[in-house]
Amino acid sequence: MPPRTGSSCVIHLYSAADFARTIRRSSTFNEIAGMDGETLLVVNRQTESELDLFAPVDIITLKFMELRDELTRRSRVPIIVVVLPPHLDNRRTRGSLCSAAIAAGIAIYEIQDRAVMAVRLYEVLREGMGFTVVVEVEAGVLEVTLLSLCGGVYYGRAANVVSGRDFAGCPLVQHLIEKLRRRFGFDVSADADSCRRLRAACERAKTRLCSGRVDPVVIEVDSLLEGVDLCETISRSALVEMNLRHIERAIGECLAQGGISQDAVDDVVLAGASGHLHHVARAVRRFFTEEKPLRFTIDPAVVVERGTRDIVKQHSRRFIDSFGYLIFKN
């Protein structure tokens, strides 16, 4: 039986393997731990055999320098717009970015939110017109953001992020932990080694389901904890439904954080490379009982970049100068 692409992608929505593949595609750097515990990135220079070690902020500085050189060829002052994921838009991140920009000789005109850029072209946020929910699914990360507009300023009322690289981010793992807790009365999440082995077994099961050649699959772990063996069967359809329910819970948690009911939401926007999947749209519609407008006429994979380009063009016309941009993914 050939693999079904759509459902296979939904299987890997919260997969550590999906997150790792994305990192390998987007980054050419290997990570090591520095003397003080700070993460260092290993850069192999093609012209020399020796290796260079950079802190992440140094890599950002180098990227800013590339943008500076590109912008100075067509404008007087290198000015850029930076776009951050909602959960990274904080004082510490902004301070690091400003330090890197100063070191590179580039000016940051403004720092925007990915969710705000996703809704920009739809023009769904209007003064005093309620709230918009942005659901972004990409790179093994689900991020739900609640936005409102007040005094011409966009406000992120709440954000809920679930990452495939985090232990708690996999619904299948959480399902098995809860099942073992009910059946045997112990908590696997309290034991690091058992967690690692359970997570690895779940990743293997998801990979086999994605191949389309085996359905259902058996998840087996010998002596998982206190001499108990794990042997559970999971089907493709059950796992897909499990992940879709997880999306619905994430939306509910985001609204609860913002103190907003479903009725107060006026629009829903899909973003991210996996936002085009009809399974994702179905889960969102199911949560809002199909009463809210669901915006995904613009390709969710590029809606953030297109919104960013629009605001950059606006600034360039206003100041008669060329602006650049740098978008950080989840």
TrEMBL record:
Keywords: ATP-binding, Nucleotide-binding, Stress response. GO terms for molecular function: ATP binding; ATP-dependent protein folding chaperone. Signal peptide: none annotated. Transmembrane segments: none annotated. InterPro entries: ATPase_NBD, Hsp_70_fam. This is Heat shock 70 kDa protein 18. It comes from Apostasia shenzhenica.
